[in-house]
Amino acid sequence: MSFDRPEGLWLLALAVPILAFHFYRGRIRRLPVPTLLFWEQILVEEERISALRRLRHYASLLLNLLALSVLTSAVSEPRVRGLTRDPVRLALVVDTSPPMLAREPDGRSRLDRAREEARTWLDSCDGAALYDGQGLVEPFTDEIERVRRSLGELRVRPRSRAEEIVSDLRRTRPDLRVVFLAGGAPTPNRGWTEGVCVQAGEERFPTVRLRAARFGAEPVEERIVLRWNGEVLAERSIRGEAETVFEFGVDPSRHPGRRLELGGVLEAAFASPDAFPLDDVATFVVPPSAPPPVIVFHAGKPDPVLSSALEALASRGWIGERILVSLSRFDRVRSAIGEGTAVILDRCAPPEAPSGGSWLQLGAASGAELVRPVVTDWDRSGPLFDGVELTSLAVQRARLVRGGRPLIETASGPIATVERRAGLVFVALGFSADLAESDFALRAAFPLFLRNWFEWIRRGATRAFPTQASFGDAIVPEAEWLREGAYRVVGAQGESAHPVRGGEPIVPLWPGAVRISAEGREEFVAVNFFDSDSSDLARSTAPASDPAPLPRPWFRRIPYAVLAAAIVLALLLLEWFLYHRGWI
Amino acid sequence: MEFSDYRHYTPGDEIRYIDWNVYARHGTLFVKEFTAEENVHASIVLDVSASMSFGDPPKFEAAREVVAALGYIGLANFDTVSVYTFSDRLATLRRFLRGRARIFELLSELDRVEPGGSSDFRAAFSAPLPRLKGRSLVLLVTDFYDAGGLAEALHSLLSQRFEVHLIHLLAREEIEPQARGRYRLLDLESGRERDVTLRPDSVERYRRRFDAHCRELERTAREREVAYVRIRSDESIEKRILDVVRAGGILEKR
User: Fold this and answer.
1) pLDDT one digit per residue (tens) for chain A, 584 residues
2) I need a surface site. Which of A227, A250, A376, A584 has the fewest CB within 10 A?
3) DSSP A158
4) Which of B48, B51, B205 to mutate to test the interface with A (most CBs of A within 10 A)?
5) CA-wise closest residue to A326 among A355, A347, A308
6) CATH of domain B40-253
7) Distance from B28 to chain A by nearest Cα, in Å?
8) Assigned CATH for A294-458
């Protein structure tokens, strides 16, 4: 027999005062009575049962000593071979890799099965720590309910290092029994392992290319359902070979009335779900294939060079509808400025902050005026200046442009910049198309620059978030949208708010289209699970684990200190009851 | 003879006592009742044994007040009042007092009495109690801690044609003992001592025995057609006297 807390045995010293009180009779007090007649009759009765009474007298002492023993045992925590059991201290490691979302034959996911198994272990332990595939979730604690709660909050994350955590724990925490909950029976699966949405420069519309793979079973004919903005667009068949490439051209002419040219969310899903639904759907955000509409605001008279350049671009199909309008009519036209609209400000500035569109300001009048500045450099590798040569650009006068990323540099500073404000893209040139300011409009570079700008807009220049993200990774903005406030995120598993500062990163819990919105704008991000390693569920690398022990009966789950306190209370109540009944 | 009340006529009543005027008015027969003045001799016997000094307030103080009040009632009604004390023998305090003015004499005598000795009813009432012609009452104020001799004492008094009233005086502490723990009990009359542990069950047994003792006294009184009343020393003097007067019918029987 040993004690976990031997210092608790000092409580036994309380037996001394208990014994002293019991055997010390104290000073007897005198009590006058009118007659001893009745008392003597009672004493005669009591003497008849005195032997038994003496025994009962010791019963009181026994109850007190018993209560003290229980208290002492509660504090000192004795260990008796064969009577008490060693405490069970667990380190529960739950694999949270994506394959844990595979469904077992009973319809539950492997993660749910692992949770259930972990709860059984928790029923039989005295303390536990909880780890997921990323690391420590709940430090070791004897508050089992806390571990249970954390267990319920576990989510699947990519790149699990659960096995590494298990071996670390075995090496560094010999005091803990490590229980690894992972994997399951091999499951045949098929799904998308790669995917891309591309549009070459000469192509009129984008094409979606997907790679499907089948694991652990014979190839079969698979039906693919294509959805455009959530509605069924078409159905196709593929032969589910080990590696099958599936292509779909997002051609608006083949689906009239569905407005594919405006862009949207395309889903390619296997018609019949399998045990691992994570890779059964591929999602893409398809950019618009239609040329952007253009609105030109001018101070009173449109620039003829700019107008002819736009006319030339329109005749080649690079831009859509053109509206040339005086800035004084801004209020009437502003409702026509949509998300994909290109807006050119010809030597003027908007009267109020714009709420949509992409903006090009020619002849920005914000900075100091420069006379015959020499262009020293420009953004040669950027999309706006692809094929544009500005080496001998003759600028008669220009203004410095402040803020944003420089596009054209002079010795005195930038005379062209690109800047994002409130999720919109502003390109500002410190000189206009007016020939009195530069010869830019006479050069072939001018329509090329405009075409680059329109193409850049069409391909999503205004976007803050990427169009694609990998499942499990945080979706982070690539360009500034919000400085303060929160993004509202709607995904396959509900809606949430993500503050820009100090908030949780946006990590979707399920693949699919994620809608991110703020300040009246919205963007879609396609989240896909393209991971052939995790998709192949036929392999199982999880080491075999011990079966969970039988759960403890309910009374073993009550803390011993609580149980001991209840016993002591019961003993004292028993003594009080027996005393008042005259039995002790 | 003095008119005292009316009552309904019942067969056998004297026809001459029917009030015909009332009959003429109400059509119902009523007979008139009369009370006769007679000489009453009240002998008040006060227990002065040591057990009467028990209680808070002491039973003896309460008993003295009761005796004084009863004495005054008697004297105020021009009855003859004698007061005796007894423990193991009967002693005369004052005899054949008559008239309201004698109350002060009685009170000063009562003041001088102190409790002591043990009670012995048999010895105290072995000799005949002096009595006068006419109705004679004996009002016995005691705590009855010599129950064995009570029967003989009652027999003696009743055979002398006394109308006996038993006034049982108790202290709250002897009805409901509050003490718990180890005590050395001292018998106030015999001086004997006994060590006991007063536990709730012991006290409960005492209470049952004491109740039985009181019920036995009541039964004895009822069997002998003797008035019996129980009063407590911690009650007010008014309540004690009213209880005595009502239970014994002392005023009505005069």
Assistant:
1) 777 778 888 888 988 988 888 777 667 889 999 998 888 888 877 766 666 666 767 877 888 888 888 888 888 877 776 666 667 889 999 998 888 888 888 888 889 999 999 998 888 888 899 999 889 999 999 889 999 999 998 988 777 788 899 999 999 988 888 999 887 667 778 889 899 998 877 788 899 999 888 877 677 788 999 999 999 999 998 886 667 888 899 999 899 888 888 889 999 999 988 888 888 999 999 988 888 899 999 988 888 889 999 999 999 888 888 999 998 888 888 888 877 889 999 988 888 877 788 899 998 877 888 899 999 999 988 889 988 888 888 999 999 998 889 999 999 999 999 988 777 889 999 998 888 889 988 888 899 999 999 888 887 777 889 999 988 888 998 888 888 889 999 988 789 999 988 888 898 888 899 999 988 788 899 999 988 877 777 665 555 556 656 556 666 666 677 778 888 888 888 888 877 776 66
2) A376
3) S
4) B205
5) A347
6) 3.40.50.410
7) 58
8) 3.40.50.880
Fold (CATH) for A89-185: Rossmann fold (3.40.50)
Q: Collapse the DSSP code of A392 into the 3-class scheme (helix H, G, I; strand E, B; otherwise coil) and give the result.
A: coil
Q: CA of A565 to nearest chain B CA: how many angstroms apart?
A: 28
Does the fold of domain A294-458 match that of domain A89-185? yes
Q: At what angle do helices A50-76 and A15-23 cross, to 10 degrees?
A: 170
All structural domains of chain A with their residue ranges = 2-84+560-580, 89-185, 294-458
- What residue ranges do the domains of chain B occupy? 2-35, 40-253
Interface confidence, given as ipTM, is 0.82
Q: A168: exposed, middle or buried (C-beta count within 10 Å: 0-12, 13-18, 19+)?
A: middle
Say yes or no: B212 contacts chain A, CB-CB below 8 A.
no
Judging contacts by C-beta atoms under 8 Å, the chain A residues touching residue B54 are 32-34
Is the minimum CB–CB distance between B180 and chain A shorter than 8 Å? Answer: no
Return the residue in A22, A23, A35 with the most chain B beta carbons within 10 A, the one to mutate for interface testing. Answer: A35
Find which of A31, A48, A49 to mutate to test the B interface (most B CBs within 10 Å of its CB): A31
Separation in Å, CA of B116 to nearest CA in chain A: 12
What is the spatial distance between Cα A429 and Cα B245, in angstroms, rounded to a whole number? Answer: 126
Which burial class, exposed, middle or buried, applies to A146 when counting CB atoms under 10 A from its CB (0-12, 13-18, 19+)? middle
* pTM for this entry: 0.53
- State the Cα–Cα distance between residues A306 and A254, nearest whole angstrom: 35
